[in-house]
Automatic annotation (TrEMBL):
The protein, known as: Phospholipid-transporting ATPase
Organism: Rhynchospora tenuis
Similarity annotation: Belongs to the cation transport ATPase (P-type) (TC 3.A.3) family. Type IV subfamily.
Cofactors demanded by this protein: Mg(2+)
Presence of keyword Methyltransferase: no
GO BP, sorted A to Z: phospholipid translocation
Residues at which Mg(2+) binds: 498, 500, 900, 904
UniProt keyword annotations, A-Z: ATP-binding, Magnesium, Membrane, Metal-binding, Nucleotide-binding, Translocase, Transmembrane, Transmembrane helix
Length: 1212
């Protein structure tokens, strides 16, 4: 029995008699194939992954959180043109990962009712929000209370507020009340100014957006109307390239079939075109006469779903995601659309999704709380000591209290004796404790918080400006979206990476094909350049050139027989089984235009370009038909039905009405799903050969698809059409019925062949992964691709090596998974104990189903952490997040997740640090990330350079702030011990306030932004130096104790050296207070100077300028006659004793710090110190002595040579 005429070749070519046919002559249908009129369809969600694996996108997370969990598309099918045969009706069963949805109807209680073209009636019962948007946080009235409320979420601020309030109590008045509250007020004011400026910018942006205009039907005419004045129920007209002002249900378009093309880049970042459709019932009615009722779900965040129905001219029709266009979308390739506003303003889906990434706290800040608690305990201890000693002093001097000037227990001015400022010994002891807390409150540095914000801002600026993280091709800079975790970049131990679009470019290139059992991999350059078509006088040429196989070209052009026929059907399937939209682009030659194929999937684009390169060129698409140039002859094919890809079937199919009046079903999908639906009675040799080719393609790292087809009889088509019409008009269970219909059609297929598409590695990925591994960072790849493809890519990017022992877990049940994990645990223990060889764990998503959130998690954790590499294949988005949580919840190691697509969002948000790649799959990952960049290789300078710098700078700044404030507090404490525990302040109140704000704040901020312990080249050439942050060498409890002991010693020197020098003189507390203050400021700044590694003019200006500023402020304050201590500094500076005391304080105070630093660096040098000396003395061999400034070696020659060799061994 002969098959129908081949579709791609003008001559009639028959099949050999031994070819089993899947069709009969009954597939020839009478009459011309109609050009269908679209009645309804459903939208296609972006699927930019290969069809070869299951995907679950972030939309599912949104669906789970929104009210309507599963949403249906519209489904009334396609109404036939009245002039055509009713048999041919184009229908669609589009679905992707649960988009169909809803198994229920809308109840009146949970629905909103919109009267079309009647906003007054719509708002009669319920007042919907207007279309004005507001992204600002504050108004003029609410700014002060709300901003203060938000700032006081920091517990430390409440602590300082309470202390400031206590200072207003007369009995506790250590400082002047206004001065006591000034530090907190300053911090609050600076933060408020920053917040006000940011909100002012938001207000300005909102005003610009709300003042835009659209064309709205008013009094029977379309008139301009500001966006903010649009109401629910208004009919709006939007023209080509305009942006939608609100969420609209589509009523009509300039296309007679009701199709519209939209770009959702402002919504989800995807630049590919998507299709939306108007219902047939609304297409033929002029907008001025349009009436009806839309009953839709309440506003929700689900941008991929919409549940509604409408009553138009007495007929109830269902509405779905394909019938609504959301605010922010742009109309493309469509002259105009008309729609009715259903959600406005803050109810629109884009506004409901207008929230940033979840807030994260850095590990240093969390550890800082530990030290803050320690300082609080120390503060309480000091205050308790003062209180106890004060109580003892009061009891010892009980008889003298009546005449002691400070206490003045009794007042004798009047004849009658009465108490005067005396509250009994118990009261005075309590007041002493509370006053001590106020006096020593600076022990917990309030300025540290604002200093950290400023430092992070400065660090972010330099990261953004780093030219080594700038992508020239896309003009993309590094983005710092979260300012509060910069330092975490220096402590990463695990990197969890997506593959497609993250390690690879996600720019698909067609490489080879298996056509009916024959492998065609002999591609050559430039063949496709000669492929052209002529349309309306213009020569059309594909924009992208594809390498082609000359043998396959010859087979398609001149071949005969079964293989040639199947080859032509194969490429017709590639050209038709898709949702690609051809776009004509002008060139420098006015007679030549380029065809650019725009679609939602890079895979589809690559396949259509490949078909064009072999002579089957898609040149036009409308909602009902496509025009394909077949070897120079343009043919029109009617698209009668489309079953879009979904993660259950892992296939997509299209029903095509051909020029010879036959009907064909073309199907493409993953091999795992396609090979199970083939006709088993056909040639099995072709199937076996194709499977072999698929295995070879996967081993090369190619993404594979299997192509099949089936000829449909008129009875089969009519049965399908009838079933689809019933299912698509069902209001309950529609999604399940449509899925069943799609699966029923895609059976008994003829295998046409398979494709191999290459997703090339990004530039520098192998080198980047090698650097990360040398830095002690474990790289895990979590991908949805099949195992063979992922392993091949693993070898290509140097993640896997031939020397690694691979532990593979592919389980199909819980019991087999448990056994596999037990064997893996035993094997990993044995290899670690016996040989210490490198190990790689490879596990698939099906096995993870039985592992994650079960008792087997612990076994997986044991195996995974013993392995050097973990490769997870065919994993869903939530499984990616589960793998990250596996490490994050069981260890203290810092995790980083990096990805580029919506299916990476859950992983990015789960990790301690999330990085989005601004690639080909939209900006969902970027919008959910903490940092964003264009290429994976930028991860190396980000972590090894900026991460290292940020960590060591911030760690030192925090410890230094604790130290400098402790020095100040200890000096006050020693003074209290010599003033009968009266808590008088030796230092002028103004100077006390300015100490943390002016005298010592600027140097530490500048050093924390600019200092570099090692150069970029050293850090990049020696990745092992990154381990300093992983081991927390720069911030730990030992260093904290060391800083506190240093502050204790220096406070003793600062206090007692001047005290002993002046105790037998007539110098009062004002003079000594100035000397103590200058000693503190000079010593803590010089202490900082000793630790600075790289000096520049800004650092010099900050440190020496702060000392000079302190001196000037002391002189100015002592020159004001109204303040205590008038002229004291002038008297002090006039004597030699003052200058010798300052010199002695500096020398004696710095000796322990300097000696300890030199001793540790000489006897126990760290890797950082050795690398710094190698860098400083430019001694690449390490074989000679590296002289210190005083002529001695800072480290022994052997140590330098040994560690330098270790650093060199792992270099590529």
């Amino acid at each position: 029995m002969r098959s129908p005429e081949p579709l791609l070749s003008p001559p009639r070519l028959g099949l050999p008699p031994d070819e089993p046919s899947t069709s009969t002559s009954s597939t020839k249908l009478p009459g011309p194939v109609p050009s269908p009129i679209l009645k309804s369809s459903s939208s296609r969600r972006a699927h930019s992954r290969s069809y070869s694996h299951e995907t679950v996108t972030f939309a599912e997370i949104l669906r789970q959180s929104s009210k309507p969990i599963d949403l249906e598309p519209n489904g009334n099918g396609f109404a036939p043109n009245s002039t055509q045969l009713p048999n041919y009706i184009r229908s669609s069963t589009r679905r992707n990962s649960g988009r169909f949805g809803s198994q229920r109807d809308l109840s009146d209680d949970e629905a909103r009712f919109i009267y079309i073209n009647d906003p007054a009636r719509t708002h009669n019962s319920v007042k919907f929000v207007n279309n004005a948007i507001s992204t600002s946080k504050y108004t003029v009235i609410t700014f002060l209370p709300r901003n203060l409320y938000e700032q006081f979420h920091r517990v430390a601020y409440i602590y300082f507020l309470i202390l400031g309030a206590l200072n207003f109590v007369p009995q506790l008045g250590v400082f002047t009340p206004a001065l006591g509250i000034l530090p907190l007020a300053f911090v609050l004011f600076v933060t408020a100014v920053k917040d006000a400026y940011e909100d002012f910018r938001r207000h300005r942006s909102d005003n610009t957006e709300n003042s835009r205009t659209s064309t709205v039907l008013t009094d029977g005419e379309f008139q301009p109307k500001m966006w903010k004045d649009i109401q629910v129920g208004d009919i709006i007209k939007v023209t080509n390239n305009e942006t939608l002002p609100c969420d609209m249900v589509l009523l009509a378009t300039s296309d007679p079939t009701g199709v519209a093309y939209v770009q959702t880049i402002n919504l989800d970042g995807e630049s590919n075109l998507k299709t939306r459709y108007a219902k047939q019932e609304t297409l033929s009615t002029p907008p001025e006469q349009m009436t009806g009722l839309v009953k839709c779900e309440q506003p929700n965040r689900n941008i991929y779903g919409f549940l509604a129905n409408a009553e138009i001219t007495g007929k109830k029709v269902s509405l779905g995601p394909s019938n609504i266009i959301l605010r922010g979308c742009e109309i493309k390739n469509t002259n105009w659309i008309v729609g009715v506003a259903v959600y406005t303003g803050s109810d629109t889906k884009v506004m409901l999704n207008n929230s940033g990434a979840p807030s994260k706290r850095s590990r240093l800040e969390s550890h800082m709380n530990r030290e803050t608690i320690s300082l609080s305990v120390l503060l309480g201890l000091i205050c308790t000591i003062v209180m106890v000693l004060a109580g003892i002093w009061l009891f010892v001097h009980d008889e003298e209290l009546g005449i002691t000037p400070f206490y003045r227990k009794y007042e004798y001015e009047n004849e009658k004796q009465k108490n005067y400022n005396w509250y009994g010994k118990g009261g005075m002891i309590v007041f002493t404790f509370m006053s001590a807390v106020i006096l020593f409150q600076i022990m917990i540095p309030i300025s540290l918080y604002i200093s950290m914000e400023l430092v992070r801002l400065g660090q972010a600026f330099f990261m953004i400006q780093d030219k080594q993280m700038y992508h020239e091709a896309t003009k993309s800079k590094f983005q710092c979206r979260a300012l509060n975790i910069n330092e975490d970049l220096g402590q990463i131990r695990y990197v969890f990476s997506d593959k497609t679009g993250t390690l690879t470019e996600n720019k698909m290139e067609f490489q080879c094909a298996s056509v009916y059992g024959s492998d065609f991999s002999g591609a050559s350059d430039g063949t496709s350049e000669n492929i052209t078509s002529v349309k309306a006088g213009f020569v059309l040429r594909p924009k992208t050139i594809v390498k082609t196989d000359p043998k396959l070209h010859e087979l398609l052009r001149n071949g005969t027989g079964r293989e040639a026929n199947r080859a032509r059907d194969f490429f017709l399937a590639l050209a038709t089984c898709n949702t690609i939209v051809p776009i004509e682009m002008e060139t420098s030659d006015p007679n030549v235009r380029l065809l650019e194929y725009q679609g939602e999937s890079p895979d589809e684009q690559a396949l259509v370009y490949a078909a064009a390169a072999y002579g089957v060129m898609l040149i036009e698409r409308t909602s009902g038909h496509i025009i394909v140039d077949v070897f120079g002859q343009q043919q029109s094919y009617n698209v009668l039905g489309l079953h879009e890809f979904d993660s259950d079937r892992k296939r997509m199919s299209v029903i095509i009405g051909c020029p010879d009046k036959s009907v064909k079903l073309f199907v493409k999908g993953a091999d795992s799903s396609m090979l199970t639906v083939l006709d088993k009675t056909l040639n099995q040799d072709v199937t076996h050969l194709t499977e072999t080719h698929l295995q070879n393609y996967s081993n090369l790292g190619l993404r594979t698809l299997v192509i099949g087809m089936r000829d449909l009889t008129s009875e089969e088509f009519e049965e399908w059409q009838s079933a689809y019409e019933r299912a698509s008009t069902a209001l309950l269970g529609r999604g399940t019925q449509l899925r069943a219909i799609a699966s029923k059609m895609e059976t008994d297929l003829v295998l046409l062949g398979a494709t191999g598409i290459e997703d090339k590695l990004q530039h520098g990925v192998p080198e980047a992964i090698e650097k990360l591994r040398q830095a002690g960072i474990k790289v895990w790849v979590l991908t949805g691709d099949k195992q063979e493809t992922a392993i091949s890519i693993g070898f290509s990017c140097r993640l896997l090596t031939r020397e690694m022992n691979q532990i593979v877990i592919n389980a199909n049940s819980r019991d087999s998974c448990r056994k596999s994990l037990a064997d893996a645990v035993a094997l990993s223990e044995k290899m670690m104990r016996n040989s210490g060889e490198q190990q790689a764990l490879i596990i698939d998503g099906n096995s993870l189903v039985y592992v994650l959130e079960t008792e087997l998690e612990e076994e997986l954790f044991k195996v995974a952490t013993r392995c050097d590499v973990v490769l997870c294949c065919r994993v869903a988005p939530l499984q990616k997040a589960g793998i990250v949580a596996l490490i994050k919840n069981r260890t203290d190691d810092m995790t980083l997740a990096i990805g580029d697509g919506a299916n990476d969002v859950s992983m990015i948000q789960m990790a301690d640090v999330g990085i989005g790649i601004s690639g080909q799959e939209g900006r969902q990952a970027v919008m959910a990330s903490d940092f964003a960049m264009a290429q994976f290789r930028f991860l190396v300078p980000l972590l090894l350079v900026h991460g290292h710098w940020n960590y060591q700078r911030m760690a030192y700044m925090i410890l230094y702030n604790f130290y400098r404030n402790a020095v100040y507090v200890f000096v006050l404490f020693w003074y209290v011990l010599y003033t009968a525990f009266t808590l008088t302040n030796a230092i002028n109140e103004w100077s006390a306030v300015l100490y943390s704000v002016v005298y010592t704040a600027v140097p530490t901020i500048v050093v924390a932004i600019l200092d570099k312990d090692l150069s970029r080249s050293t850090l990049m050439n020696h990745p092992q130096l990154y381990g300093s942050g992983q081991r927390e060498e720069k911030y730990n409890i030992k260093l904290f104790i060391g800083f506190m002991l240093d502050s204790l010693w220096q406070s003793l020197v600062i206090f007692f050296l001047p005290y002993l020098a002046y105790r037998h003189t007539d110098v009062d507390w004002s003079g000594l207070g100035d000397l103590w203050l200058l000693g503190i400021v000079i010593l803590v700044n010089l202490n900082l100077a000793v630790d600075v590694v790289r000096w520049n003019w800004v650092t010099h200006a900050a440190i020496w300028g702060s000392i000079a500023a302190t001196w000037i402020c002391v002189i100015v304050i002592d020159s004001i006659w109204m303040l205590p201590g008038f002229w004291a500094i002038y008297h002090m500076m006039a004597t030699w004793r003052f200058w010798f005391c300052l010199l002695g304080v500096v020398i004696v105070g710095l000796i322990p710090h300097f000696v300890g630093k030199a001793f540790l660096e000489y006897t126990m040098p760290s890797d950082i110190q050795i690398a710094r000396e190698i860098e400083k003395f430019n001694n690449p061999t390490g074989t000679t002595s590296m002289p210190h400034a005083h002529g001695v070696s800072a480290t022994t020659d052997g140590e330098v040579q040994m560690i330098h060799q270790q650093l060199q061994q792992s270099q590529p």
